[in-house]
């Protein structure tokens, strides 16, 4: 059986809308700040915080200050539940923040990515001395699949894996951060595709068959032959101070949404000097939206932004025969 834990101490808060680009920045930013999109937000920080912003206001917030670990992956599901990986476990919570399901990472192991498959399954990677891919049945409390994975450094758990996502073909696209490559696995654990991707933090398969890779100070679109066909680097936008790119998302309009993380463990973040947390860029690399909200509301470091402009069904995916 999968171990359960008591619900975290949580607090629902609200924030004040900011209709201008960014009144707390040193200069006006493109777009309309919080009001540009409705979105779900989370990031790696010393506390585990998540937000839903609608109409330019924070309408739901989750704050866990008592636990440990960092939120590296989080998804708002179509039924309002939230699935998130928080370094030392994976948790599914209801909109009222009650814990619906939880899996704790064993000693010396970490979990930084998780994805819902329908309403009954969760696929995730467990970093550790023996890294593995798991598929959990949250209804039965059993693991339905367990696949060993290769890591560059089995004695360095933290740096092995971050983000992984299922493809439309039902394969699993994994960013091997400590090996500098992206690997696509089928349901049996066989490799069906791979490509070099230095400092790969995240990877997603695009509708055109290419793969969007992000990490370090770059985002790259890689074709099936492993060639880079589009690239965004920090040097393209020096004024935005993008040094720690984590997740990048290709939007339906063709633009790319890029998250810019800031490391709280290196010292306190100065809100007056902190960089933008995310930008939306066109294929021609024009910034049409920049998000910079460090004080009102204090969204914190940025790892993922899930846009909610259209009702999403992120759990409508499969891993081979598991649906």
Question: Your description of this structure?
Answer:
0% of the residues lie in helices and 41% in strands. Strands 3-2-1-24 form a four-stranded antiparallel sheet, with no helix packed on it. A four-stranded antiparallel sheet has the order 4-5-6-7, with no helix packed on it. Strands 8-9-10-11 form a four-stranded antiparallel sheet, with no helix packed on it. It has 323 residues and is mostly beta strands. Mean pLDDT is 91; it is low at 1-26. A hairpin with a 3-residue loop joins strand 5 (82-85) and strand 6 (89-93). The chain has strands at 39-42, 48-54, 57-64, 73-76, 82-85, 89-93, 99-104, 110-117, 121-127, 132-137, 142-148, 161-166, 172-176, 181-185, 191-196, 202-205, 211-215, 218-222, 228-233, 245-250, 256-260, 278-281, 287-291, 304-307. The radius of gyration is 19 Å and the shape is globular.
State the distance separating the first and last CA atoms: 21 Å
CATH fold group of the domain at 33-155 and 231-307: Lipocalin
Rg, please? 19 Å
The helix/strand class is mainly beta
Percentage of helical residues? Answer: under 10%
Strand elements, count: 24
How large is the count of helical segments? 0
Overall body shape: globular
H and E order = EEEEEEEEEEEEEEEEEEEEEEEE
Main sheet makeup: 4 strands, antiparallel
Quaternary class: single chain
- Order of strands, widest sheet: 3-2-1-24
Strand content: 35-45%
CATH architecture of the domain at 33-155 and 231-307: Beta Barrel
């Amino acid at each position: 059986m999968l171990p359960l834990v008591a619900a975290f101490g949580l607090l629902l808060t609200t924030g004040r809308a900011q209709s201008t680009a960014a009144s707390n920045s040193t200069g006006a930013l493109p777009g309309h700040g919080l009001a540009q999109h409705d979105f779900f937000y989370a990031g790696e920080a010393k506390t585990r915080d998540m937000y839903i912003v609608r109409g330019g206001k924070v309408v739901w917030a989750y704050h866990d200050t008592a636990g440990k670990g960092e939120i590296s992956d989080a998804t708002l599901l179509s039924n309002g539940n939230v699935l998130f990986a928080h370094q030392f476990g994976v948790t599914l919570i209801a909109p009222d923040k009650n814990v619906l399901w939880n899996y704790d990472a064993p000693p010396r192991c970490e979990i930084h990515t998780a994805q819902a498959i329908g309403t009954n399954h969760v696929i995730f990677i467990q970093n550790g001395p023996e890294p593995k891919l798991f598929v959990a049945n949250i209804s039965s409390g059993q693991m339905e699949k367990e696949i060993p994975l290769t890591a560059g450094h089995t004695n360095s758990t933290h740096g092995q894996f971050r983000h992984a996502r299922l493809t439309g073909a039902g394969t699993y696209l994994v960013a091997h951060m400590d090996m500098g490559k992206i690997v696509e696995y089928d349901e049996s654990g066989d490799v069906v595709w791979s490509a070099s991707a230095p400092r790969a933090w995240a990877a997603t398969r695009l509708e055109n068959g290419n793969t969007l890779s992000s990490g370090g100070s770059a985002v790259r679109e890689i074709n099936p032959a492993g060639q880079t066909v589009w690239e965004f680097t920090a040097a393209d936008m020096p004024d935005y101070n993008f040094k720690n790119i984590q997740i990048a998302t290709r939007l339906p309009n063709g633009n790319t949404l890029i998250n810019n993380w800031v490391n709280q463990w290196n010292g306190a973040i100065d809100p007056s000097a902190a960089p933008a947390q995310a930008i939306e860029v066109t294929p021609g690399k024009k910034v049409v939206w920049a998000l910079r909200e460090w004080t009102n509301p204090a969204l914190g470091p940025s790892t993922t932004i899930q846009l909610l402009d259209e009702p999403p069904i992120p759990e409508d995916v499969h891993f081979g025969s598991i649906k």
